[in-house]
Write a structure and sequence with these properties.
With about 350 residues, this protein is mainly alpha-helical. The protein contains 14 helices and seven strands. It is about 45% helix and about 5% strand.
Length: about 350
């Protein structure tokens, strides 16, 4: 068994040297793939009231520069995922050798070897399936390290981590689970956030608090072992109580209108300013229009009325003050509602 592990380790070292040669003479990674993804956009009424949050690419994400992320959180993420990040060149040979040895010894816990850079490559390129998928991933990770700086890789990684409930990136994760941004975190808060991405479905703290705290304590132990926090700080953090903030769900108001805004954002016909779009709709008038329209349709149901729509415009400017795509949204009206949204005039 020991001889087998030694042979495996030797093959890995030789393979790593070969990978390095290939990376130096090949074009293996496209840095244009690492552009910032679309962020969630807040759609506001004319007075700043929130109508809806339009998720970019279907996820709740807000990009944050590395300079605005707490160093404590960075340390916690490195402790959890890749403690030698600043020492390797995309592939951690030490971790690969350790994994080769532990994975062939019976009764030993299997050890992973993917670096933070390799994980980033998987998140951007997807997970290939085939005989050479791991080798391709390693090649791309090494090529990426030659193309951009460690700080750029770290910023990309922190902003692409999954946190459950459609939340992506440390900025929205901190806001959702801690109630504030990632700029200033305690060791306990940092370790909690850093521990979620390993298994978001099982360590998301609002539903699985006990598991989240166990994972938090594991990360704190690693931070102490690395000397990034003192044993006293680690003990204090482990005893720190946690309660996820009670945040109201995002509203979904003026649905047909905000659907059109979302479509305009996707098509590039509309751009957000600082993550928000201020519209001409007035939410009080919107609610009044919805109520009056429903009352009217209900009153004339006996005469065959099934649904209705309404738009309130300012006559001199054409501004849309209220936009009701359908009085009813039940399954019987679904087809009509869909047509109304498609055929309705564009918002300002």
């Amino acid at each position: 068994m020991q001889r087998g592990a030694a042979v495996t380790a030797a093959v890995i070292v030789v393979g790593y040297v070969g990978l390095e040669l290939v990376v130096r003479h090949g074009d293996l990674v496209d840095v244009h793939r690492f552009v910032r993804p679309a962020a969630a956009v807040r759609v506001l009424d004319r007075e700043g009231a929130l109508l809806r949050v339009v998720r970019g690419d279907g996820v709740d994400q807000r990009w944050v520069p590395l300079a605005e992320v707490s160093p404590t959180l960075v340390s916690a993420v490195l402790a959890a995922e890749d403690r030698r990040f600043f020492a390797h060149h995309g592939v951690d040979v030490v971790a690969v050798l350790r994994a080769a040895v532990t994975n062939v010894i019976p009764w030993r816990r299997r050890s992973g070897a993917s670096t933070l850079t390799q994980q980033l490559v998987k998140r951007v390129y997807g997970r290939p399936h085939g005989l050479w998928d791991k080798g391709i991933e390693m090649l791309r990770a090494m090529a990426l390290e030659r193309a951009v700086s460690k700080d750029e890789i770290l910023e990309q990684y922190l902003n692409r981590l999954p946190y459950g409930d459609g939340i992506v990136g440390v900025a929205r994760a901190c806001e959702a689970y801690l109630g504030h941004g990632p700029q200033s975190l305690t060791p306990a808060e940092a370790a909690l956030i850093a521990g979620i991405p390993q298994a978001p479905a099982h360590t998301e703290p609002r539903r699985h608090l006990a598991r989240a705290l166990r994972r938090r304590n594991e990360v704190l132990g690693r931070m102490v072992a690395r000397g990034w926090i003192t044993p006293e700080q680690g003990a204090s953090a482990r005893s720190e109580r946690f309660a996820a903030p009670t945040l109201p769900p995002h509203p979904t108001l003026a649905l047909a209108f905000t659907d059109r805004v979302a479509r305009a954002l996707r098509d590039g016909a509309l751009t957000a300013d600082a993550g928000a779009v201020t519209t001409s709709v007035q939410i009080g008038l919107q609610r009044d229009a919805e109520s009056l329209l429903l009352d009217a349709v209900t009153r004339f149901t006996g005469s065959g009325a099934q649904n209705g729509a309404a738009v309130v415009l300012r006559h001199d400017s054409g501004e849309v003050y209220a936009y009701v795509g359908a009085a009813r949204r039940d399954p019987r009206a679904a087809r009509w509602t869909s047509c109304a949204r498609t055929d309705s005039p564009d918002p300002p």
